[in-house]
């Protein structure tokens, strides 16, 4: 057996009232890409903090090259060759690329920082990543993906032998993520051990070779070859049971029913041409495509956020000219669950109560415009129970909730307004497997109750689990449609073939309402 670069041996970490880690084991070997998986609360973040010197373990020990390693601070971890790139960037925006890369040990001359001498090592680290960046460029001018690669360049500069990547693709497009994977593979080839923490199992299986799974602070799978396990195996280990669409209460769609939403020959100022689709009551229609396909821009045109230049929109048979999301909600009953929950979905500094009831204030206002606090609380409490939102109280700020619970609060405000049609854009980005499954069940059951749902998701597994039909977009046009039977192999194969066949004339396209 290959000797590990770094080993966690029976690590225990206890906080008041919580045993966050309970005998966790982990072996990290040179040249491997190691997946560290688990739901929110499983102990991943705590383990990362132990490995990077933020927390001292209360039991067990860390071993580096077979010798015990005691870390008193993150600086100790850096000196021991352990680097980390957090989900939230850790760069100084006003500093240059070179200044950020060399920040932890800047070159100096006669006791003063030598800014000119920063350039060569920064260029060397950037070159190792295949990154063509001006080392004198301020970091604030870089894209999110470029900033993330600068973070990795920092780790190269400090000669990290173990590099932890925490949710590295959460803010990246698929194309940017693929570039990151190339960098990860290159690092592994040069002997670095990369620890890859992600909720996206398709990415884990694309780039990792070994895996550790945590559940409730314990290792339920430790440093095992990933090739010996399927995605379903890993999900079962993470949550304690398997989960598929077949687990959910069966539902059927009346395909003869008039559409709740119908787009016919739609063209927009954003570049869409001849877009036609329909969504019926109780139906989940998926919009799938690569970055740039125009899915989010299409629904924004429906909501009045992009200009419609041709064609028509009908909502429950009524021709609609929608000028704003407010009009979409109050006149046509359309709710929009945005992909950007932190900036557009919830008010982070406001209580959960206010977030849920903001869409119905006008409805429950009394004679002189003041809001009925009793009705507010009744509405919020009903939806918190219905959606299983975990809060300490109605006055808890939304920003204090987990990502999954924030998304549920965002959904709750639309349900409070008696939404008749729901548009959902990337509903489970950045949430753990159990929360994702709970959200799937929510959407599934809403459709079973008759709510029509238009679903945008870049998660192919999510699309196949939920959608009754998948409409495939590329180049801001509809290229084809796949009937949903929740068979991953069949549906994914057809969807991928449609995406790569860009000729509309060769793919049958659904036109207008049936």
UniProtKB/TrEMBL annotation:
Which keywords, in A-to-Z order, does the entry hold?
Answer: ATP-binding, Cell membrane, Membrane, Nucleotide-binding, Repeat, Translocase, Transport
One Pfam family matching this protein: ABC_tran
Question: Which SMART domains does the UniProt record give?
Answer: AAA
Give the matching InterPro entries: AAA+_ATPase, ABC_carbohydrate_import_ATPase, ABC_transporter-like_ATP-bd, ABC_transporter-like_CS, P-loop_NTPase
Q: Does the keyword Transcription regulation apply?
A: no
Topological relation to the membrane, as annotated: Peripheral membrane protein
List, alphabetically, the SUPFAM superfamilies matched: P-loop containing nucleoside triphosphate hydrolases
Q: Where does the protein end up?
A: Cell membrane
Q: Which Gene3D superfamilies match?
A: P-loop containing nucleotide triphosphate hydrolases
Q: A GO molecular-function term, please?
A: ATP hydrolysis activity
Q: What is this protein called?
A: ABC transporter
Q: Per the UniProt entry, what species is this protein from, by scientific name? A: Streptomyces sparsogenes DSM 40356
Q: What lineage does the source organism belong to?
A: Bacteria, Bacillati, Actinomycetota, Actinomycetes, Kitasatosporales
